[in-house]
What does this fold into?
Amino acid sequence: MLARALVNQPRILFLDEPTDGLDPISSKTIHSIITDSAAKGTTVFLTTHDMVEADKLSNRVAFINQGKIEALDQPSVLKRQYGKRILAVEIEYADGRTETIQIELDGGNSEEAIAQLFTQQKVLTAHTEEATLEDIFIEITGRGLLG
It folds into this structure.
């Protein structure tokens, strides 16, 4: 169906759940085709329940709740607006115990806390975490559904 939709090189392409039920290899192939089409100038409207797919393929996303657009923006902007940025640091104590400490990056003294942690503890791993589109979708649509 996708090949038939693309054969005439459309300027606008509407896709409804294009990878629903596909294995990861086939999904990746479809993602590549969608990305290539967009890079060649095709405007792609994609509906999906897969928030990872939406994040990977979309320049802009819209969250629709009960027929109304609740949020519309770039995924990165929505993540900053609705989510928290966190640095998760796994440390090891002298007795071998490990603990993961989370530092909010949007807080006022995050730089001090990070510097202190790295100079005073044995750090095993460190990585940042941000809200996912799934987290944001639940937050945005959950308010409307609950009240």
Residues 2-59 form a domain with the Rossmann fold fold (CATH 3.40.50.300). The first helix runs from residue 2 to 6. Residues 3 and 33 are 9 Å apart (CA to CA).
